[in-house]
């Protein structure tokens, strides 16, 4: 069966082939090439106005199979118009056309079944007047039939065609080389519908007008499938690929050898210049962009109205950025490295004209990015961000950072969100950023003075600020910034010396501020809270450390970042405990709190309030784990300290440099100073201090046994510290009890000149002596009212009088006092001009004193007047003396001067061995009553000599004058001149324990008988008067009259 | 009897001796061998006098001061006195800083341009030489 079918088909084929050959031979004999060339040239002449030439025209069957077509060779159309360009309009080496002649002639329908053009040249030219060289067709205005022609382009193909187009009027030039064009479709009544493919090896488009545009590309492939109605409406699908595209505008390269691909469903109304894009995809070096929407060019003013939506592919930034013309980005990215994937989607809406630009929105997604900048020490990795961009060049462009996160140095995570308004102008930024940071990774951003860092920080920054790229960024641009930081194990090392550590710290910063609570131009508020903060000098051999516990600060400063203004600071502070070690001193403060205000680097205010405050100062340099320091412990139930400091650089004295103005109140304070025997208890203290004046409003002090209330004013502080005047004080001292021994020890050496201090140290080192040195440089007057006082071992009562210290001189002036022995008045002076030359002078007036008590109270009296111990009873004793002392208080006898007067009444002579001996020598009756009516004597002391001036003594029936001298070595030379009942003298000489008695003549027989007084006796009496008179001059009577 | 005569002879001898002694005394007194107190020129007292470590300075105007270097006292720290010299009686009245006077009376036995000697009533003698 198969074999029969095969034979049948071969037979039919052979018949058809023979038939075709026969027809061909018949046609060739009828239409030979020479005859056809003649026919075509004749017919062309009817339609063309230019020179033309066709070398050869033949019929072809195979080329247009199954239709028969014309095969033209070397077709040339020439239309010389300008000598500068070629006169060839068209040249084709070979042209084949299959045309339905019958349809053309009968139905006026040009059915071009097949048309091809090979190896040709099209040279189009439009001159300056708009005349094109392609207007070569004969027109017949009366002939309207041509409008009825239709063209059916089933296959139009041009191969290896060079196309040149030059428009001298618009200065445009297009050159396409080795172009292949294929068109399929129909052309009916100016309506073209079909498919066109265009390929070219090269394409060049140049606009030489003011635009100065250059575009070129290679391997161009374009395909259009759709309609072109009335040569106006385009509706079809366009695909185009161009390789190595170059776009130069003016001198700027916008495309530089890139591959471009376009795919679009295009609808266009060319007359209305209206273009609608659907499913439009652009590809630039494989970076894809999808664009849909509409573009309309206003025919009246050329404004471009856009309503486009675009969406990119997932672009790799490192691939996209090189595509961005340098003309656009300039060198802005030279110092920036940025990569990752970026995708954009948004709209372009609005009019592009000389006055308007369309609005562009874009949702930007950035994934897995990396960012680095030349001057930024950190690289950011794993960046993910979502942004909304609203670009409005006519008004305001904004960008919203929906989210942005990145890591730096692998372990630090940062996030940010917010808005940036007016992106292209003065930007207004509202950003919230967070960071989970390892501080050591940000060392480069922190002050260089800090050399080491450690710890973690959780930061949240909420900031609003303006940024103008045209101007340097200033903190004035910041309208709001809130930074919350939580630090863990914060460690910093300052200057390789000071180590700062906090286990946890909360820092909340806010700036700028509108509230000005301290009026220091507040800009920043910092709230700091930490459970512990320690600052340690790691280089010091001695311990230098500050540790604070439970610290809370609420600090305000002016603009720290403005280098043109100096720092102002105000803060409240509250701590549970503050411990300080500085060299050999340590301090421990419990519950300090208050306010510190630094108005500028020279002026500051310090308010300190505390309950149960304690300060311990130790010289051990070791931590005081207990509350006790080994130097000073100060405690107070309540303290209120207000201090203002005005630093004056030109001042030399440290205190005046700070010029403090202080108000201090304490309640139940206690200062336990180890060098003092007793703690100073201060139940109440209220004082105001400034460099000119210190007002003691109230000072209740308890020191040892002493309990005093002190009020008054101290002035001249500034002049005193300048060395130009004395420190003047006018004080009122009221004391229930005052232990002068303790007070002397307390005030020893205050303000002494350096030379004297050096002497004191030297003497103390050599001999261990440490005499009391009277304060120098002070003029303090103190009115005292003391109920009880203790000096040495004597207790005095009801003391009232004036005490003043004036520049190294201590004076007790007319102090009235009482004790068990007597009522007393004391004026005394103590000076310390130098360590081994101390002056002591006193004028001591005792009224109604019991002699035995007097000797007990002042043992030196027994030395001055040893015979006094032979008497019992009351006496008035007046003793003035002065001497210089050595550093150990030994008397310099060469300087000893003294005068004394003793007046006694109703005395009793004690019956001791000396009295018995004298009575025996003078032959006193055994019945002699040993009472004395009166006794009045004057005594002088000069060096080691004590001279007892003659005094009259009456015992019973005996009267005697006693006089003489004894020396401080207790050698005696006395004389008793017995006047009654007989005149006889008794010399008593020798050492106290080996006295020799010698009866002789009475030495002063007529001393107390003025009319018989001899010259020598008169002189003696004058001297007695002189001694008495000068002693009395220093006595103030009880009513104040001498 | 012999004893009585012997006693009488003794008394005579002693009486003659005593009488002779009285005559000698009277003769000496007549020849001014026991002069009353000598009168010294007080202008000679002006100036510095030194006795060992003790220094005294007398001003012509009746003031002066004294110091003893043995007690580590300098001239600037010397203590003042006023003085009078009447015949041979030198009176120093030492003035205390706080008021009060300490008079001291001496009898001058020698005063010239180079030497000063005086003593007090208790037998204490002082010898100074002129210092400058």
Point out poorly predicted stretches of chain A: 623-627, 1038-1042
Helix-strand sequence of chain B: HEEEEEEEE
Shape of chain A: rod-shaped
Structural class by sheet pairing and helices of chain B: alpha+beta
What does the secondary structure layout of this molecule look like, with pairings?
The complex is a heterodimer of chains A (1042) and B (132).
Chain A: H1 2-30, H2 33-47, E1 51-60, E2 69-78, E3 88-99, H3 101-106, E4 109-126, E5 150-167, E6 172-188, E7 191-207, E8 213-229, E9 233-249, E10 252-269, E11 274-284, E12 287-297, E13 304-312, E14 315-316, H4 317-320, H5 326-329, E15 336-352, E16 359-373, E17 379-392, E18 398-408, E19 412-421, E20 427-438, E21 450-467, E22 478-494, E23 498-511, E24 524-537, E25 545-557, E26 569-574, E27 577-582, E28 585-590, E29 593-598, E30 603-617, E31 632-646, H6 654-658, E32 661-673, E33 680-689, E34 693-703, E35 706-715, H7 717-721, E36 727-739, H8 740-747, H9 754-767, E37 778-791, E38 794-806, E39 809-818, E40 823-834, E41 837-850, H10 851-857, H11 860-864, E42 871-872, E43 874-885, E44 897-909, H12 913-921, E45 931-942, E46 945-955, E47 958-967, E48 971-980, E49 984-991, E50 996-1000, H13 1015-1032
Parallel strand pairs in A: 4-5, 36-37
Antiparallel strand pairs in A: 1-2, 2-3, 3-4, 5-6, 6-7, 7-8, 8-9, 9-10, 10-11, 11-12, 12-13, 13-15, 14-15, 15-16, 16-17, 17-18, 18-19, 19-20, 20-21, 21-22, 22-23, 23-24, 24-25, 25-26, 25-27, 26-29, 27-28, 29-30, 30-31, 31-32, 32-33, 33-34, 34-35, 35-36, 37-38, 38-39, 39-40, 40-41, 41-43, 42-44, ...
Chain B: H1 2-30, E1 47-51, E2 54-58, E3 63-68, E4 79-86, E5 89-95, E6 101-111, E7 115-119, E8 125-130
Antiparallel strand pairs in B: 1-2, 1-8, 2-3, 3-4, 4-5, 5-6, 6-7, 7-8
């Amino acid at each position: 069966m198969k074999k029969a079918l095969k034979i049948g088909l071969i037979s039919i084929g052979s018949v058809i082939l023979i038939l075709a050959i026969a027809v061909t031979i018949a046609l060739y004999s009828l239409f030979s090439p020479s005859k056809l060339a003649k026919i075509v040239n004749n017919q062309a002449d009817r339609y063309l106005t230019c020179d033309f030439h066709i070398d050869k025209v033949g019929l072809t069957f195979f080329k247009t199979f199954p239709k028969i077509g014309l095969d033209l060779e070397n077709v040339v159309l020439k239309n010389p118009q300008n000598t500068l360009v070629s006169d060839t309009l068209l040249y084709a080496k070979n042209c084949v056309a299959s045309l339905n002649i019958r349809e053309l002639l009968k139905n006026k329908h040009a059915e071009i079944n097949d048309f091809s053009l090979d190896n040709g040249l099209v040279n189009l030219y439009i001159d300056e007047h708009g005349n094109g060289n392609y207007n070569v067709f004969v027109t017949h205005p009366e002939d309207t039939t041509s409008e009825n022609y239709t063209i059916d382009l089933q296959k139009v193909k041009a191969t290896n065609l060079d196309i040149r187009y030059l428009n001298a009027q618009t200065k445009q030039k297009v050159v396409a080389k080795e172009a292949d064009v294929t068109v399929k479709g129909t052309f009916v009544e100016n309506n073209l519908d079909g498919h066109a493919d265009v390929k070219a090896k090269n394409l060049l488009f140049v606009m030489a007008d003011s635009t100065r545009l250059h575009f070129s590309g290679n391997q161009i492939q374009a395909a259009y499938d759709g309609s072109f109605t009335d040569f106006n409406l385009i509706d079809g699908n366009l695909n185009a690929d161009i390789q190595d595209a170059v776009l130069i505008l003016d001198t700027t390269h916008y495309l530089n050898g890139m591959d471009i691909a376009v795919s679009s469903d295009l609808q266009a109304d060319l007359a209305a210049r209206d273009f609608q894009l659907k499913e439009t995809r652009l590809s630039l070096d494989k970076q894809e962009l999808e664009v849909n929407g509409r573009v309309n060019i206003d025919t009246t003013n050329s404004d471009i109205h856009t309503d486009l939506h675009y969406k990119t592919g997932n672009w790799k930034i490192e691939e996209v950025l090189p595509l961005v013309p340098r003309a656009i980005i300039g060198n802005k990215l030279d110092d920036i490295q940025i990569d990752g994937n970026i995708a954009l989607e948004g709209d372009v809406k609005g009019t592009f004209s000389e006055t308007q630009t369309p609005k562009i929105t874009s949702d930007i997604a950035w994934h897995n990015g990396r960012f680095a900048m030349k001057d930024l020490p950190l690289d950011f990795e794993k960046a993910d961000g979502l942004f909304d961009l609203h670009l409005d060049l006519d008004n305001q462009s904004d960008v919203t950072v929906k989210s942005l996160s990145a890591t730096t140095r692998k372990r630090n995570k940062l996030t940010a969100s917010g808005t940036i308004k007016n992106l292209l102008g003065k930007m207004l930024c509202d950003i919230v950023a967070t960071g989970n940071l390892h501080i050591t990774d940000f060392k480069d951003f922190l002050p260089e003075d800090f050399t080491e860092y450690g710890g973690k920080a959780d930061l949240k920054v909420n900031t609003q600020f303006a940024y103008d790229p045209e101007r340097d960024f200033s903190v004035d641009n910041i309208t709001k910034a809130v930074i919350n930081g939580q630090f863990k194990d914060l460690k910093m090392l300052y200057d390789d010396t000071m180590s700062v550590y906090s286990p946890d710290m909360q820092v909340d910063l806010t700036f700028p501020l509108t509230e000005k609570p301290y009026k220091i131009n507040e800009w920043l508020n910092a709230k700091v809270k930490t459970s512990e903060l320690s600052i340690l000098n790691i280089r010091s051999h001695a311990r230098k450390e500050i540790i604070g516990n439970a610290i809370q600060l609420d600090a305000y400063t002016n603009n720290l970042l403005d280098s043109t203004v100096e720092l102002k600071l105000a803060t409240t502070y509250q701590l549970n405990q503050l411990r300080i070690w500085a060299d050999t001193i340590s301090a421990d403060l419990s519950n300090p709190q208050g306010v510190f205000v630094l108005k500028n680097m020279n002026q500051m205010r310090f308010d300190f309030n505390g309950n149960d405050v304690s300060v311990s100062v130790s010289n051990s340099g070791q931590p005081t784990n207990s509350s006790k320091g080994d130097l000073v412990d100060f405690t107070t139930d309540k303290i209120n300290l207000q201090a203002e400091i005005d630093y004056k650089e030109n001042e030399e004295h440290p205190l005046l440099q700070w010029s403090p103005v202080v108000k201090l109140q304490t309640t139940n304070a206690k200062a336990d100073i180890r060098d003092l025997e007793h703690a100073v208890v201060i139940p109440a203290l209220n004082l105001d201090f400034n460099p000119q004046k210190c007002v003691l409003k109230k000072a209740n002090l308890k020191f040892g046994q002493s309990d005093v209330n002190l009020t008054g004013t101290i002035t001249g502080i500034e002049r005193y510290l300048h060395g130009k005047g004395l420190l003047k004080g006018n004080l009122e001292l009221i004391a229930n009890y005052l232990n002068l021994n303790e007070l002397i020890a307390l005030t020893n050496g205050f303000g002494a000149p350096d030379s004297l201090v050096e002497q004191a140290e030297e003497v103390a080192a050599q001999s261990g002596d440490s005499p009391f040195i009277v304060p120098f440089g002070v003029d303090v007057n103190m009115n005292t009212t003391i109920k009880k006082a203790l000096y040495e071992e004597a207790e005095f009562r009801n003391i009232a009088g004036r005490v003043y210290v004036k520049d190294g001189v201590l004076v007790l002036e007319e102090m009235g006092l009482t004790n068990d022995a007597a009522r007393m008045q004391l004026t005394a002076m103590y000076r310390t001009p130098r360590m081994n030359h101390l002056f002591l002078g006193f004028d001591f007036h005792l009224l109604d004193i019991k002699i035995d008590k007097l000797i007990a109270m002042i043992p030196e009296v027994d030395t001055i007047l040893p015979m006094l111990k032979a008497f019992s009873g009351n006496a008035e004793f007046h003793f003035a003396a002065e001497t210089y002392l050595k550093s150990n208080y030994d008397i310099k006898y060469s300087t000893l001067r003294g005068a004394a007067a003793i007046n006694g009444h109703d005395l009793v002579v004690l019956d001791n061995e000396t009295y018995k001996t004298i009575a025996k020598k003078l032959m006193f009756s055994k019945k002699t009553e040993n009472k004395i009516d009166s006794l009045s004597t004057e005594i002088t002391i000069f060096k080691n000599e004590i001279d007892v001036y003659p005094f009259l003594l009456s015992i019973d029936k005996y009267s005697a004058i006693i006089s003489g001298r004894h020396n401080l070595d207790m050698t005696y030379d006395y004389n008793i001149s017995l006047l009654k009942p007989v005149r006889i003298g008794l010399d008593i000489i020798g050492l106290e324990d080996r006295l020799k008695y010698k009866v002789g003549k009475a030495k002063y027989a007529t001393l107390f008988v003025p009319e018989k007084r001899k010259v020598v006796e008169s002189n003696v009496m004058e001297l007695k008067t002189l001694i008495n008179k000068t002693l009395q001059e220093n006595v103030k009577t009880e009513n104040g009259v001498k | 009897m012999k004893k009585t005569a012997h006693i009488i002879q003794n008394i005579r001898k002693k009486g003659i001796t005593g009488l002779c002694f009285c005559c000698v005394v009277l003769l000496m007194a007549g020849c001014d061998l026991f002069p009353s107190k000598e009168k010294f020129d007080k202008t000679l007292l002006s100036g510095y006098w030194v006795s060992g470590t003790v220094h005294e300075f007398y001003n012509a105007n009746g003031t002066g001061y004294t110091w003893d270097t043995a007690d580590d006292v300098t001239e600037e720290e010397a203590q003042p006195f006023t003085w009078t010299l009447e015949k041979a009686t030198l009176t120093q009245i030492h003035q205390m800083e706080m008021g009060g006077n300490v008079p001291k009376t001496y009898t001058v036995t020698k005063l010239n341009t180079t030497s000063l000697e005086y003593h007090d009533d208790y037998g204490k003698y002082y010898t100074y030489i002129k210092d400058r």
